[in-house]
Amino acid sequence: QGQLVESGGGLVQAGGSLRVSCAASGSIVRLDVMGWYRQAPGNQRELVATITRGGTTDYARAVQGRFTISADNAKNTVYLQMNSLKPEDTAVYYCYARTWYNVVYWGQGTQVSVSS
Questions:
Q1: Is residue 74 classed as helix, strand or coil in its secondary structure?
Q2: How far is CA 71 from CA 10, 23, 46, in A?
Q3: Residues 31, 113, 39, 55: is their CA dihedral positive or negative?
Q4: Side-chain half-sphere of 5: how many Cα atoms within 13 Å?
Q5: 84-108: b (≥16 Cβ within 10 Å) or e
Q6: What is the DSSP letter of 105?
Q7: Of 114, 110, 113, 115, whose CA–CA distance to 21 is shortest?
Q8: Could you read off the pLDDT of 10-60 as tens digits, one per residue?
Q9: H or E element that contains 113
């Protein structure tokens, strides 16, 4: 069974930076898209950013210009660099991956907390 293993996250003051990483296990093959979603208490899970195998990126409007998604295809790993963090960025961040066969995987989630 394939899995996504997340790392990073934590607590930071407003204006600070954090990076989260997510590695797909070797049993996950033919990756097409990887990315990040987040869910704050009482809110629905929402898209943060995605990146295709070819390098095409997509960002939520709320994070454009502050967050950068990147990937190392050889390692099946995706990164999210988060700069100029705001308290409203506080959420559990979930790694996401979709294969060519439309099989979707989710990570276990990592907490990002931004204090004002």
A1: helix
A2: 21, 10, 20
A3: negative
A4: 10
A5: ebeeebbbbbbbbbbbeeeeebebe
A6: E
A7: 110
A8: 999 999 999 999 999 878 889 999 999 999 999 999 999 999 999 999 999
A9: strand 110-115
